[in-house]
Amino acid sequence: MYKAYAKVNIFLKIVGKRDNYHELLSRFILVKNLFDELEFVEKKTDDAFELHGEFGCELKSNTIYKAYDATCKAGFEKQLKEFFTCKALSVKKNIPSFAGLGGGSSDAAIFLHMINKEVNLNLSNEELANIGLSVGADVPFFVYGYNSANVSGIGEVVKEFKEEPLHVKTMTPNIKCDTGAVYRAFRQDYKVDVDLATKMSKMSSQELLNTYDDITLNDLFGASLSVYKELEEYRKKDWYFSGSGSSFFTVEND
Questions:
Q1: CB-based contacts of 219, cutoff 8 Å, min separation 6
Q2: Which of 59, 91, 114, 124 is the most buried (most CB within 10 A)?
Q3: 137, 194: one domain
Q4: Could you say which of 7, 13, 66, 219 is catalytic?
Q5: Which domain-ending residue is among 135, 160, 185?
């Protein structure tokens, strides 16, 4: 059984645009007490790719399937189709969807590691991350598996940030935030502060939480509040917003 951990964004700053994408600078940390569970099981159908689990989307929209398809297109279709003639993937979902916790991206990244090992693809982390980036911007972070990292560009630049792990507790309201809608709201009041983002990237995660408020830490929080006003009911002291939402997190003492 493989664990696909959740993540939270300690800070997230938008620092520019590249074509139709926003460039960011953000501190990602893994949440080790919240994870999906993935394992290969015996196949029961004639489907080319059999996936078991409770997902809120059709197969071809699933990030795991997209990772499978991207790996096939990277030149490994024969090996993967042979492997999946008798194997299926089973996923126990524990990370909430549409929550800013990266569950789908983490599943895709761990799936890439699983097939790399089981099918003997012998791909490096850099090669896996490159395949993963075509699936989603957060996938490379999960491929590298750092406890803490500064992530920049459109997600392709992942630099480990060495610091003591934080014990994070998450809370996810029953609100499904649409990332596209949040970014559209953000663009209506577009402000970039590259100097502040760079300063934040050099601070420890605990120092960041001690220094800045929730709106300053996450450029997407104000936009999320404008689209989903009910999020205001869940704002509390020492709780922070992850990604485009809707999850909040706090740091617990040992």
A1: 12, 13, 14, 186, 191
A2: 91
A3: no
A4: 7
A5: 160
**Domain residue limits at 195:** 167-252
How far apart, in Å, are the Cα atoms of 160 and each of 26, 71, 144? 12, 25, 9
When divided into structural domains, the chain yields a total of 2
CA distances from 152 to 23, 46, 125, 225 (A): 7, 41, 17, 24
* Matching residue, tokens 């709780």: 239
Which of 21, 119, 124, 122 lies closest to 68, judged by CA?
A: 119
pTM score: 0.94
Tell me: do 132 and 177 sit in the same domain. Answer: no
Predicted confidence (pLDDT) per residue in 81-128, tens digit: 999 999 999 999 999 988 899 999 999 999 999 999 999 999 999 999
Contacts of 174 (CB under 8 A, 6+ apart): none
- The answer to whether residue 7 is catalytic is yes
Answer yes or no: are the C-beta atoms of 160 and 146 closer than 8 Å: yes
Q: Among residues 36, 107, 138, 219, which one is catalytic?
A: 138
Examine the residue annotation and report whether 238 is marked as an active-site residue of this protein. Answer: no
